[in-house]
Amino acid sequence: MMIIALVFGFFIALSAETVPLGALYALLHPDFVTLLLLYWAISNNSELSFTIVWLIGLFQDIALGDVLGAQAIASIIMIYLLYSGLGRVRSLPPWEQLFFVFLLLLAHRLIVWLWQAWAGAITWHFSLLLGPLLGALLWPLFTFALDHLRHTLRPQHV
User: Fold this and answer.
1) CA distances for 21 relative to 39, 62, 113, angstroms
2) In this structure, is residue 54 part of a structural domain?
3) In sequence order, what are the residues at sequence separation of 6 or more whose Cβ sits closer than 8 angstroms to the Cβ of residue 144?
4) Contact 100/89 with Cβ under 8 angstroms?
5) What is the pLDDT of residues 17-65, one digit of tens each?
6) Phi, psi for 69 (deg, rounded to 5)
7) Euclidean distance between CA atoms 76 and 111, whole angstroms
8) Please, which residues have CB within 8 angstroms of residue 73's CB and are 6 or more apart in sequence?
9) Domain count for the chain
10) Among positive and negative, which fits the CA dihedral 66, 67, 70, 72?
11) 158 or 128: whose pLDDT is higher?
């Protein structure tokens, strides 16, 4: 059931990233797929498989037209960093998780940028930092909405 919800959520998050909404949105948009991966890794007791994270990252690279492997390797490293300190992050309320989420989103964005710069596909711009900042600020609302949805869709035992 978790895999079905993750795949469904992934397609919704990916469609939110691929819809062209203008230049300002391109600068400010948070990485919804990465936020979803962080949510699933933090909220579920079972660890998210690195294979699933890698495949989601590769699919995201293909859908966004990024350098192949950029999102995948950044997602793997981000989830590894999260798992190394998961007990501390999971025990915090969402508004306190915000700082750790910002650092993880920033690490993800910088790894993607390094991968793309190494391939010669992108140049540095400070606006690259706005997406992780907005994603971190949206984190409490994002977790509240997904927690509510998860509890609403949970099968009720009579």
Assistant:
1) 25, 19, 22
2) yes
3) 94
4) yes
5) 888 777 777 677 889 999 999 998 988 766 678 998 999 999 999 998 8
6) 100, -10
7) 11
8) 57, 111, 115
9) 1
10) positive
11) 128
Question: Per the structure block, which two tokens stand in for 52?
Answer: 């699933």
The range of the structural domain enclosing residue 103 comes to 2-10+31-153
Task: Note the pTM of the prediction, 2 decimals.
Answer: 0.87
HEC states along 113-141? HHHHHHCCCCCCCHHHHHHHHHHHHHHHH
CA distance 85 to 42: 10
Query: How far is residue 5's CA from residue 1's CA, in Å, rounded to a whole number?
Result: 6
Find where tokens 């949970």 sit. Answer: 154
**What's the rounded Cα separation, in Å, for the pair 27 and 141?**
21
Alpha-carbon gap, residue 42 to 28, rounded angstroms: 24
19 in a structural domain: no
User: Is residue 158 situated within a structural domain?
Assistant: no
Longest dimension (CA), the chain: 58
Angle, CA 19 vertex, CA 152 and CA 52 arms, to 5°: 55
Query: How far, in whole angstroms, is CA 50 from its chain's centroid?
Result: 14
Does residue 15 belong to any structural domain of this protein?
no
